[in-house]
């Protein structure tokens, strides 16, 4: 080891030693400055590298997105994906390089500066101090008077001790200097060598990576040359095609014949004609909207955007006629008239109008040729162009809000305190569970998701009458008996007001998500429960007609008279005849004349002077009556079949079966218990015509039962084996309130059962004027909203008022809607 400062010179404390010390101290000070600067520059380099990596990652992400967008071009997608992967590897290598720089330069040199240089400075302070003390001792010894022996002895002792201390500290200081000078070389070289090796590894990895990528890049380079040639060829072809089309358009402009440019014919895809037409809306303003029309599969349809599902204007062209319209202000108009409505359209020119009229006429003729004699047997059907009602915001209920809803719900025993923590005066509720909650528990319920709990304010939100009635028929007491049945048995503590949120949340999740405290019944208990519910349903159904048997046949259309239907509707409806005339005239302008001319033949006088309806129009269930007389005991046979189904499916625990029979028995607590046991709300009874709990709730006749199932996710359009959904069954049984509810919850009016009957056709044949009115008003409202576009009004005010009235009446005064009796299957 090379000695920077000589040890013997330090004992002499010569000027040479002092000069060496000053030189070393200056060198160390400059070294510290340079090292601090290098560390700061390293930190700046690392930060800039991290920013570079971040920007590079974003760039690579952009390449990946471009590759995903180019999925139709396999070459571009695969190449960009490979490039992105390679660049991502380089980013990873950069990250490793910067990490190594941080360890080798920043951390290692910072340690050297903070530890070794700090020890040097501390040694320097001690050396300077003892040097001053030595100089003071020498001066005092020199100044001691000859005649004062005690002062001479004292100065001599101090000088001797000071010199001894000086030699000791000076030797340590020189040792620290020499060690520092040696260590600075190793530390600096070691850190820089480690950093350079990190660079060597980085570039070596990059070289290997791109060496593997080079064959692909070479291949793409050769393909790129061919792509440039192909692109130039395609450009020439497109320019030639452009010139040809331009010349063709110029010739048509010269001849004033642009008909062929305005529509297309695609015979291979069954499109007889398609193109743009203006369509007059059916709203009060009679606005005109430009839509893309097409004639395909014997139907006239239109759509606003290509991705939209086509809206059917005429379901079967054989049932319509087409004619010119010269009695309106607009030019080039024509009208397609179907049995239920008419559609006014406008072409852009006279030639286009003639082309469209001819296309419709040809399609009518073609349809008749294809079907032959079957055309005479077709029933007149309503258009299926409307969708379902949206219960989210388009239908504003006459609802209860504020203190009224709060008072009604809190009046239920147990509801005056939070269901989960017991805090008094709750102001929130879970509508699918039927419980009241404090604001903190309501927030936790919201975090569970709407498939577990749907939270609504008792004071701020509006409450539909059927939903308010649902809340009043359940309550905290009923639900806690189900969801906390085993809480005390398991020793679980129920939260109290003021407990930490984490504890309350853990309890609520265990209660409703994990269902830890629900008591699962034994198979014997489940069997007894289901049998009891089925017997309860049997007693309830003894006074009403069961659901139509799947073996029943479809009535011939000739057995029903549309005129008698309108007359019966006028006699039985909530609306006066003038109101029904104005409503029905929207769909059939000849309904008034038909009803007036046909009424005497369809309505007879009984012996007691009252008016009676012939058997074919006596009830709304007539469409399900067999053509021959049903055997005696049909009701008994149906119930027996259901009872047998109860026993055959009780081999194992089945919560769905409990939900099934509880829905028909109108037992909300048993329904809530079945859901807590894990029942599927859309469970299908395979041995009972594939009916669902919602269909059985329709059979039970309870509006609140249907609302409970819908709030818990029941499918409002799920059909049975006969193709009949809940809306079909509610229409057949004449449950007007349920029909109103299902329409609000999105039930499809266009669904057909296996007899090809829609709910509207069933209601018309049964002469149920209230249900016919609801279905037709819903269809009219849908057409108005569709014609007005996405930014139009949410519906007609008359329609909204009528639905509000029906909802209010169905919940608060259902007897006013139950004027019809289901069809008597024993009637001759």
Note the topology.
Elements: H1 7-12, H2 15-69, H3 74-143, H4 149-255, E1 263-266, E2 271-280, E3 288-296, E4 299-303, E5 311-314, E6 321-325, E7 333-337, E8 342-346, H5 350-371, E9 400-401, H6 403-410, E10 428-430, E11 435-437, H7 439-448, E12 455-457, E13 462-463, H8 465-473, H9 476-483, H10 487-490, H11 501-513, H12 523-541, H13 562-572, H14 577-584, H15 591-602, E14 604-605, E15 611-612, H16 634-648, H17 655-664, H18 668-676, H19 693-700, H20 703-711, H21 726-733, H22 736-744, H23 759-766, H24 769-788, H25 797-812
Antiparallel strand pairs: 1-2, 2-3, 2-8, 3-4, 4-5, 6-7, 7-8, 9-13, 10-11, 10-12, 14-15
Helix pairs in contact: 2-3, 3-4, 7-11, 8-20, 9-18, 12-16, 12-17, 13-15, 17-18, 17-19, 19-20, 19-21, 21-22, 21-23, 22-24, 22-25, 23-24
Pfam family, one: PH
InterPro entries: ACAP1/2/3-like, AH/BAR_dom_sf, Ankyrin_rpt, Ankyrin_rpt-contain_sf, ARFGAP/RecO, ArfGAP_dom, ArfGAP_dom_sf, BAR_dom
Biased composition (Polar residues): 591-608
Protein described:
With 828 residues, the chain is α+β, with helices and mostly antiparallel strands. Among the domains are: 208 residues, Arfaptin homology (AH) domain/BAR domain (Substrate Binding Domain Of Dnak, Chain:A, Domain 2); 115 residues, Roll (PH-domain like), CATH 2.30.29; 114 residues, Annexin V, domain 1 (Orthogonal Bundle), CATH 1.10.220. It contains 25 helices and 15 strands. Strand 2 and strand 3 form a beta hairpin. The radius of gyration is 46 Å and the shape is elongated. 33% of the residues are buried. Its main location: membrane. It holds the Pfam family PH.
């Amino acid at each position: 080891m090379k000695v920077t400062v000589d040890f013997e010179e330090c004992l002499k404390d010569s000027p040479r030693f002092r000069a060496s010390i000053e030189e070393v101290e200056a060198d160390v000070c400059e070294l510290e400055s340079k090292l601090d600067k290098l560390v700061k520059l390293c930190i700046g380099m690392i930060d800039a590298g991290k920013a570079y990596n971040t920007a590079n990652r974003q760039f690579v992400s952009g390449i990946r997105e471009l590759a995903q967008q180019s999925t139709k071009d396999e070459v571009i997608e695969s190449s960009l994906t490979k490039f992105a992967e390679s660049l991502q590897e380089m980013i990873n290598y950069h990250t490793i390089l910067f990490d190594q720089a941080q360890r080798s330069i920043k951390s290692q040199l910072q340690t050297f500066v903070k530890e070794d240089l700090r020890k040097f400075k501390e040694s320097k302070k001690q050396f300077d101090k003892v040097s001053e003390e030595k100089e003071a001792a020498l001066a005092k010894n020199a100044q001691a008077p000859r005649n004062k022996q005690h002062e001479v002895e004292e100065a001599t002792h101090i000088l001797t001790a000071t010199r001894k201390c000086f030699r000791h500290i000076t030797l340590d200081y020189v040792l620290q200097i020499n060690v520092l000078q040696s260590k600075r070389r190793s530390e600096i070289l070691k850190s820089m060598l480690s950093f350079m090796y990190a660079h060597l590894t980085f570039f070596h990895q990059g070289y290997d990576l791109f060496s593997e990528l080079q064959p692909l890049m070479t291949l793409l380079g050769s393909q790129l040359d061919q792509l440039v040639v192909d692109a130039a060829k395609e450009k020439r072809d497109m320019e030639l095609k452009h010139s040809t089309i331009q010349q063709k358009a110029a010739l048509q402009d010269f001849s004033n014949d642009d008909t062929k440019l305005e529509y297309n014919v695609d015979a291979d895809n069954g499109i007889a004609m398609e193109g743009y037409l203006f369509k007059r809306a059916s709203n009060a303003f009679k606005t005109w909207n430009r839509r893309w029309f097409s004639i395909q599969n014997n139907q006239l349809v239109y759509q606003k955007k290509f991705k939209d599902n086509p809206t059917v204007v005429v379901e079967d062209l054989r049932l319509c006629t087409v004619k010119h319209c010269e009695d309106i202000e607009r030019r080039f108009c024509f009208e397609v008239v179907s049995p239920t409505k008419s559609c006014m359209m406008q072409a852009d020119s006279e030639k286009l109008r003639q082309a469209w009229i001819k296309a419709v006429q040809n399609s009518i003729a073609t349809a008749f040729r294809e079907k032959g004699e079957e055309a005479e047997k077709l029933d007149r059907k309503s258009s299926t162009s409307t969708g379902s009602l949206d219960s989210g915001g388009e239908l504003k209920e006459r609802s209860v809000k504020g203190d009224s809803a709060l008072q009604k719900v809190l009046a239920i025993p147990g509801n005056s305190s939070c269901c989960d923590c017991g805090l008094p005066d709750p102001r929130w509720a879970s509508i699918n569970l039927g419980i009241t909650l404090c604001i903190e528990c309501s927030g936790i319920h919201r975090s569970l998701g709407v498939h577990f709990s749907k939270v609504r304010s008792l004071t701020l939100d509006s409450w539909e009458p059927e939903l308010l009635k649902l809340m009043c028929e359940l309550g905290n007491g009923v639900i806690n008996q189900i969801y906390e049945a085993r809480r005390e048995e398991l020793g679980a503590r129920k939260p109290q007001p003021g407990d930490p949120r984490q504890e309350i949340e853990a309890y609520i999740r265990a209660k409703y998500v994990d269902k830890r405290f629900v008591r699962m019944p034994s198979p014997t208990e489940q069997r007894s429960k289901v049998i009891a519910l089925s017997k309860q349903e049997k007693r309830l159904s003894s006074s009403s007609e069961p659901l139509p048997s799947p073996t029943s046949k479809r009535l011939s259309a000739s057995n029903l008279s549309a005129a008698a239907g309108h007359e019966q509707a006028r006699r039985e409806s909530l609306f006066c005849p003038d109101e029904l005339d104005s409503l029905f005239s929207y769909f059939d302008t000849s309904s008034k004349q038909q009803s007036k001319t046909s009424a005497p033949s369809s309505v007879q006088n009984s012996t007691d002077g009252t008016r009676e309806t012939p058997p074919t129009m006596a009830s709304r269930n007539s469409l399900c009556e067999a053509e021959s007389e049903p055997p005696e005991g049909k009701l008994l046979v149906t119930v027996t079949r259901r009872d047998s189904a109860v026993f055959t499916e009780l081999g194992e625990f089945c919560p769905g079966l409990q939900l099934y029979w509880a829905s028909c028995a109108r037992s909300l607590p048993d329904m809530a218990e079945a859901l807590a046991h894990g029942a599927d709300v859309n469970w299908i009874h395979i041995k009972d015509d594939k009916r669902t709990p919602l269909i059985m709730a329709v059979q039970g006749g309870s509006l609140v039962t249907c609302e409970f199932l819908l709030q818990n996710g029941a499918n409002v359009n799920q059909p049975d084996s006969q193709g009949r959904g809940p809306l079909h069954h509610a229409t057949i049984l004449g449950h007007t309130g349920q029909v109103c509810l299902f329409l609000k919850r999105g039930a499809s009016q266009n669904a057909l059962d296996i007899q090809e009957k829609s709910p509207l056709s069933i209601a018309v044949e049964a002469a149920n004027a209230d249900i016919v009115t609801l279905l037709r008003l819903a269809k009219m409202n849908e057409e108005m909203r569709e014609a007005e576009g996405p930014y139009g009004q949410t519906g007609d005010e008359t329609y909204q008022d009528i639905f509000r009235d029906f909802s209010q009446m169905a919940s608060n005064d259902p007897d006013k809607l139950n004027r019809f009796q289901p069809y008597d299957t024993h009637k001759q």
